[in-house]
Amino acid sequence: MARVSIIGTGTMAKAIADVVGRSGGAVDLLGRDDAPVTGEIVVLAVPYGALADVVAQRGAQLAGKVVVDISNPVDFTTFDSLVVPADGSAAAELAEALPASRVVKAFNTNFAATLSTGTVGGQPTTVLIAGDDADAKALLAGIVTAGGLRAVDAGPLRRARELEAVGFLQLTLAAAEKVAWTAGFAVAA
Amino acid sequence: MARVSIIGTGTMAKAIADVVGRSGGAVDLLGRDDAPVTGEIVVLAVPYGALADVVAQRGAQLAGKVVVDISNPVDFTTFDSLVVPADGSAAAELAEALPASRVVKAFNTNFAATLSTGTVGGQPTTVLIAGDDADAKALLAGIVTAGGLRAVDAGPLRRARELEAVGFLQLTLAAAEKVAWTAGFAVAA
Question: Given CB 3.0 to 4.6 Å as the disulfide criterion, which of A111, A137, A143, B186 pairs with A186?
Fold first, then answer.
């Protein structure tokens, strides 16, 4: 099983570390200024606004890695739009900033609690994965599946735009108390 | 219970008619060139590409009505994008074309089968409703709920952009056989 480095120390970082741990894979949970990444897969479990700093600090280390963007680039001052261009995505921006990495979008449609429990609304938690590198997606999907969740290939990295729309919508529903932070969108097969 | 006119005779038109029927409401299922609409709520159950014709033919009749846009404006030649501007939505276009109507977005995230059966992935089928008129949303939500489904207020009409992203993503997942046409996104509360 691949080694996974997770940059970030928040709720999502810990929840994704749970998944990797259940999969039997090795995981390093790194702060933003910690040791170099060692994993073949590097999860950037930081807010969208911190991605530029990670790229600046660790861009060279990320060459050749599978880099997982989990961000939801929501304008948290208005909670009424995204801060990325309407025809783009945070993942597309990251891929442009890290041309030597294999960027995939994943986990942004999953609330942390549903990653830890493995269920949402009675269904197995499903991680939607978008990316342009089939091997990168398969590597991540293998960990997700071994960690007890479902993985679904959501298409090319271009679909990150729709995944970020789902993530944004789900956040607005939770903030408005229409769904619980332990629930949200489930994917029924 | 309000009277509902449904313009369209396809699978979605019939599935929405099922919901209205179960609610105890009266429903007229109209073809595109049929009799004038009589309902307080008018569901435009036609493909996105047919909306302009409906507006041209019936725009005057739709003044004062709650007009429900269910469309997913997918580019069906490429199945890789939407045909509306990235910062807009089909619903926003419709609202602009029908300034005297109260346009809401609904049903576009529900596959027809899940409206008829009332369940998706073991959860009650949830109709996400976006719109700027609270009374219009509440009127539709009342019918949806009385018809045995769940209704969730997804916010202002501006959120139709995200609902259309969800609908598009769900269609791509079904076309790629990642989810069944009887399944897809469920909303766990």
Answer: B186
Q: What is the ipTM of this complex?
A: 0.96
Determine which helix (DSSP H) or strand (DSSP E) holds B175, and give its type and residue range. Answer: helix B160-175
- Exposed e or buried b for every residue in B113-134, given b needs 16+ CB within 10 A? bbbbeebbbebbbbbbbbbeee
Whole-angstrom CA distances from A146 to A21, A138, A150, A151, B22 are 10, 12, 9, 10, 43
Best mutation target among B162, B164, B171 (most A Cβ atoms within 10 Å) is B162
Dump pLDDT digits (tens) for A121-164.
999 999 999 999 999 999 999 999 999 999 999 999 999 999 99
Query: Please, are residues A70 and A82 in contact by the beta-carbon 8 Å criterion?
Result: no
3-state helix, strand, coil in chain B (%, to 5): 40, 25, 40
